[in-house]
Give the backbone structure.
Amino acid sequence: MRIDAGYRDFLVSDGPLKYLVRKLEEMKAFRSTPSIEALLSVARDSSGARHVEAIDEAIRQFLSTDTSFVLESLKKWILEAVEDDKALPPFRDAIEYDEGLFHNVNILKRDGISITASSISEQDIAASRERGVGTRVVFSGQRVFFKFLKADNAVVTIWECDPFSDASEFGALRCTGSRDVRVSAGDTLEVDGTRESLSFGSCESTAVFLQVENVVRDVGTSVAFHRETGAFMETYPTDRTALRRMVMCSALKHMGASSRLATLPAPAREGPFYLRWHFARETVAAAPERSVALLESLAEDDASPTVRRAASATLTMLAKRRA
C-alpha cells in the first residue's frame, strides 16, 4: 500500500506518529552520548571467554565519568510527558519494585547492558517496615553496579549467601550474614547477585542512584532467604525467554495438545534448570510413558542436583504406578 506523501508528512510532523518519531530520536541521541556509546560499543564488540569481563570493565569506566546527564535527560523527558499527555517518554519502563520500596525507571536495555535510575526515601523504608515488607532477602543472580547520585548519610546493607549457579543444590544454601556500608553521593558499589544482595537500612533524605546490570552475566535464577533465620525459601526464574517457553508448554497441555508436547525437543542442557524440569513435568502429565526416556536422561547426568533428584523420584513413582 502506498501512502500519499502529504499524509505521511502529516502523520510524522503533526499526527499521531510524531510522538513515536520524537521518542526514537531522543533515545538515539541519548545512546549517542559519548560515555553511553563507548559502553555499548564494548558490549557489541566483545566476544568469547572475556566477553563478560570486558562488559564489567566498561561499566566501571562509564560510572567513573560524569553521569549527571542521565538524570537531566530523565527529568526533561518526564516534564515533557507531564506537559503533553500524548508524549511518549523514551525510557523503556517505569515501575515500583518490592511493593513501592524502590521507584525505578529503566532507561536503556541494549547489547547486554541495562541502565535503571532509582530512588528511595526514608518514608518508603519506614512504610515498608510497617507493612511487614522485607521478611526475605532476594539475591538476583545478576551483577549490579550502583552509583549514588544523591545519598545524604545513607546506609545500605550488603547481605551474603552461599554462592549459587544453575548446578547448585538450592535447598542446602543459606544466607550467611550481612554488613552495613555508609554511602555518599558519587560512591559506587558492585554487587554480585550470585552471593550478595543490597538493601537500604536508612537515608536522611531521598537517595537517587543508578543501577547498571551486565545482563550477559545473569544466571537466570533469583534466590530468596529468610531475613532472620537465613534459611532458603524459594527460587524465582528470571530468564524471560525461558519463562515464555514454560508458559507455552503449559498452554499446550491445557489446550488439549498433550500429544504434541511429548514430541517436542527437550530444552538445551545449558539452559536454566527450572525450564528443563518444567518441560519434563509437563511431559509427564501429558504422556507419562513417553516421558520415561527423558526422565532417565535427566536423572543420570543433568547438571542440576535438584533436577536429578526430582527426575529420579518421578521415575520411582511411575514404576510404582505400573507395578
Remarks:
- Residues 95-101 have pLDDT under 50 and may be disordered.
- The longest strand covers residues 102-110.
